[in-house]
Specification:
The chain is of the alpha/beta class. 25% of the residues lie in helices and 24% in strands. Strands 3, 6, 7, 8, 9, 16 and 17 form a 7-stranded mixed β-sheet that branches. It has a 6-stranded parallel β-sheet with strand order 12-11-10-13-14-15, with helices on both faces. It has a two-stranded antiparallel ribbon with strand order 1-2. The model has no long low-confidence stretch (mean pLDDT 95).
Length: 347
């Protein structure tokens, strides 16, 4: 088994070779067919998240031990199963759900594994998809992807799922109102593409990159602005911006969200770029603003999303294939903002 691993935080991934594991009990051994490259992989390889005001939380604090294999947007084919597996067979293909909890706490028992206080996420706590094989802890975490091919399907384990879950956290609003998507990268693009199947509202995309703004229009956004343009044109939409999804998650973007949201509106913060947010507390109740966090999504939501994509004519995010041995190059492109859609690694 070949894996590209983090052996030292802040350093390039290194190729390591291991024995192919043998699945036990409910485990599946999956031959990886594709793995998307996600921005959170950059945080994981850097080894920390920026909390603002000079503070940070390290991956060591969160239970990650080196070496580990990043990558959580995984599709593959089952090549071996544990002795207790009943409903999955060798040869089955699907998306590997990576957001796995401890499977014992109340949150996990209710199907809310992203709320688990002791998670075992693939590609963060457990080895992930920058590899030729992966050991999946339980058969329920393999979700058939239907008519999609494995390269199209892989980004929906995170990018698509994250956008879908965030959109569903905004209450239903009318077609003369707007949802602002801040950040038109991979996850933001999925937010724009999926929005018509969840909301009647029109989409405004905000991004600093003019190329991404142009692509957002092609993907269905009604309006696209740079952040400063959004503020200049705010009066055109005054009282009509009912939802904002911040797919960037830094101080400037979250402040922008607070500035443009209407009374009673909902802000969903998704991005992990980092920083802190000073808030004038009286304005939160006075304007009845709802501020929510959204971290990826649950297994049931991934199943809903795959069903939606297979049953409707959903336009899929653009994917660019690269070989697994170019993982460091793919991450460099993503860090530099040189990715249109999603890079997907092929072992």
């Amino acid at each position: 088994m070949k894996s590209f691993q983090v052996t030292e935080f802040g350093k390039p991934l290194e190729l390591k070779v291991y024995e192919i594991p043998i699945p036990k009990n409910h485990e599946l051994l999956v031959r990886i067919m594709a793995c998307g490259v996600c921005h959170s992989d950059l945080h994981l390889t850097d080894g920390f998240f920026n909390l603002g005001n000079g503070k940070k939380i390290t991956l060591a604090d969160r239970g990650t031990k080196l070496p580990f294999t990043p990558g959580h947007e995984i599709t593959g084919e089952v090549i071996s199963v544990g002795e207790k597996v009943k409903n999955v067979n060798v040869g089955d293909k699907g998306i590997v759900f990576p957001w796995i909890g401890c499977q014992a706490c109340d949150a996990c028992k209710k199907g809310n594994e992203t709320l688990c206080e002791a998670p075992k996420y693939l590609g963060a706590r457990l080895n992930g998809g920058y590899s030729t094989h992966i050991l999946v802890p339980h058969e329920r975490y393999l979700v058939p992807y239907g008519k999609l091919n494995p390269f199209q399907a892989a980004p929906y384990a995170c990018s698509g799922l994250t956008a879908y879950s965030a959109l569903n956290k905004i209450p239903k609003i009318s077609n003369d109102e707007f949802i602002v998507v801040i950040g038109a990268g991979g996850v933001g693009t999925n937010g724009i593409l999926l929005s018509p199947y969840i909301h009647d509202a029109q989409i405004i995309a905000v991004d600093t990159d003019p190329v991404k703004r142009d692509i957002a229009i092609i993907n269905g956004a009604k309006h696209c602005f740079a952040p400063e343009e959004m503020l200049e044109k705010l009066n055109q939409f005054n009282g009509k911006i009912a939802g904002v999804i911040d797919f960037v998650g830094n101080e400037k973007t979250s402040n922008l969200a607070l500035t443009i949201i209407k009374k009673g509106g909902t802000i969903v913060i998704v991005g992990l770029y980092g920083g802190s947010l000073p808030i004038s507390l009286p304005l939160i109740p006075m304007r009845s603003i709802n501020i929510r966090g959204s971290y990826v999504g649950e297994l049931r939501e991934l199943k809903e999303l795959v069903e939606l994509i297979n049953s409707k004519n959903v336009e899929l995010i653009k994917v660019t294939k690269q070989k697994l041995n170019t993982a460091n190059d793919a991450m460099k492109k993503l860090r530099n903002g040189d990715v249109d859609g999603r890079i997907v690694l092929e072992p």
